[in-house]
Amino acid sequence: xxxxxxxxxxxxxxxxxxxxxxxxxxxxxxxxxxxxxxxxxxxxxxxxxxxxxxxxxxxxxxxxxxxxxxxxxxxxxxxxxxxxxxxxxxxxxxxxxxxxxxxxxxxxxxxxxxxxxxxxxxxxxxxxxxxxxxxxxxxxxxxxxxxxxxxxxxxxxxxxxxxxxxxxxxxxxxxxxxxxxxxxxxxxxxxxxxxxxxxxxxxxxxxxxxxxxxxxxxxxxxxxxxxxxxxxxxxxxxxxxxxxxxxxxxxxxxxxxxxxxxxxxxxxxxxxxxxxxxxxxxxxxxxxxxxxxxxxxxxxxxxxxxxxxxxxxxxxxxxxxxxxxxxxxxxxxxxxxxxxxxxxxxxxxxxxxxxxxxxxxxxxxxxxxxxxxxxxxxxxxxxxxxxxxxxxxxxxxxxxxxxxxxxxxxxxxxxxxxxxxxxxxxxxxxxxxxxxxxxxxxxxxxxxxxxxxxxxxxxxxxxxxxxxxxxxxxxxxxxxxxxxxxxxxxxxxxxxxxxxxxxxxxxxxxxxxxxxxxxxxxxxxxxxxxxxxxxxxxxxxxxxxxxxxxxxxxxxxxxxxxxxxxxxxxxxxxxxxxxxxxxxxxxxxxxxxxxxxxxxxxxxxxxxxxxxxxxxxxxxxxxxxxxxxxxxxxxxxxxxxxxxxxxxxxxxxxxxxxxxxxxxxxxxxxxxxxxxxxxxxxxxxxxxxxxxxxxxxxxxxxxxxxxxxxxxxxxxxxxxxxxxxxxxxxxxxxxxxxxxxxxxxxxxxxxxxxxxxxxxxxxxxxxxxxxxxxxxxxxxxxxxxxxxxxxxxxxxxxxxxxxxxxxxxxxxxxxxxxxxxxxxxxxxxxxxxxxxxxxxxxxxxxxxxxxxxxxxxxxxxxxxxxxxxxxxxxxxxxxxxxxxxxxxxxxxxx
Length: 894
Known about the structure:
This protein is of the alpha/beta class. Helices cover 41% and strands 14% of the residues. The strands form five sheets. The protein has a seven-stranded mixed sheet with strand order 7-4-3-8-9-13-12. Strands 16-15-14-17-18-20-19 form a seven-stranded mixed sheet, sandwiched between helices. Helix 22 (607-616) packs across helix 26 and helix 23 packs antiparallel against helix 27.
């Protein structure tokens, strides 16, 4: 067995630089058991076991015993470790908290769980082990009925509690850690047979990793890297190319098996930093030359190893979860605005006041997950986190009110520290932490147990006794300290001894009046008037062509009536307010918001609908649109369809083959135009406008259309003669006609995001006055089939139609309405105080969507109002199958 080594820092070790002041201890085959015991201890703890804080004294002791230094140290460690089992059993063992009754300083860190199934998937160095959580529950909350962790990290508290059969909630603001936790929860909820099947699929993926080279680099991800990181080089070129291809590899797998793709994502996330030029050692930094030489890990090897580890854990005997831990909010601050959870136990570890930038440490993973798309995104994330690092300090963050004990420490820091942000950071940290726990009070039952794992800090020789200051701040809120246990010791870079402490409190409401959740609804009178009149059923709003001409930019089945959107925007948002539509479709609600001067955001997963919505909510120039058409014209003149492209049109189609819809010359132009937009993805407003206009004229029943006679909403099998129709001439006419009506002077351009509504929402979607949306009805027609021709033009092929729809909400909701949980949760968090969610829903004999979503919404919203409207007045638009919807319902959550 090869020898193992452990480096121990000594301030007086004879070396030329501080980085070299370490004694390296060697452990042979006879002392491997000892190595396993001490390998994760800090230098401070090792020095305590050796009985010497000075290298000079240690060397003198070895000489006095006539032993080589290494032999002496091994003997001393073995003696001290042996004494732990007797001496520390009573003194340092949490009074019997740990199973063996032995103080285990490793279990209070991530290293304690780093080898356990599921925990080890993604390294989160600031975490702790499941045994630690179990020990706290056993000692302080043996009868826990509801556990909350407001600073969840990798989800250990919530997963451990749920594994013990205790309902649990958690909060985590970092999307990487959210994702890792949610994925672990998902697979732990599966029956073992399904987990074994996933394990086999992962092993197969690991065997086929060489195929990554066959996938195209993800161009969106590549563009985001440049926008976020500029000229920074985190990977060598070959590895970077593999990362971009790995993104496409995962996206392809998601078409067939989304949970498999999530597990593959975790495997890649855990491999990114080791394969990069970066090192996560406290903060994320560039590797030294020696680290690059000695710690080189190829991306493919790392992914393969991680896939094997995950596959092995899926086949382990770890019990499943009968109870699902709930991500109740991203940001713990949001807990102040949701209904009571009746929590009787909190186990958590807030970020330490140590200057660590928790988001910068995961910026590579955030980028890979598409959570970072522009340079400002990282700052937006930091603005949501607890102020625990000097880079988190901003002008917008002010410690308005400080506890007197905190103020004393801040004043001393102001006199001594080298950076004025340090005292500001400390003051803001305790102010924010106190505010978070003030919001938590509304969720706690009397005598609730609160366990906080925390570490202290030291700056410029000024000790920041975090444990004492937290107790002082929380005492005023009714938290009575019950116990305090010192877990570990360590040394700061300046040599000060710091400690990790477990603080345990009982919550005893002290009569402090908590701010009630606002029930003020300024929109109530207008909403009651709307319910009484249903104005869109009367003139002028009932006219088919009511509203701005751009509402008709492109035909689309199932589109919300513009008049409904108009009134909902007007009623539920103030002037210059902010609106979000997570199911934007072709942008009816965002466009109505933009027309009324509101700042609007929209999400859309269909590439065709996204392009149309994006075109509507921007400002355009007719001349620049003509310029785009000129570029398209040049491309058509210089290009010819390939034989492969022509063959595809002969075999592809749903109501009929593509060749049946067009004159052959028109079809060739359409094939080339498709290639043009796929090879030159739109980025400018005019490019989206020309694309949306072209999507409109692809099929229809009037002369504007390029096709034989079909239908403008759904491309039914065509009829009539096949006549050549010039794509460019028809497109020019359509664009000019659509831009005839001017936009109002107060038109506010909006922002569209091409993504799934159930995924993580971009950070700039915040401080909303309303979320107004019309999700796909339960019994609605399948939009992807009704729009198959336009989706084909936007790049879909048979493979996409077979796989992508399974990820759409209209399909997923047929399995479970829990698909709306992340939408409702994020809506609650992104709303301003007093904000509102308005949903336009469909009710049928098979499903009452309102009842289902009302049930889910109670977790985040206090009140609900419902309006039911008959659908007898709705037009059929010549479509034979309009679904089984019997009524439209409006659900208002606030």
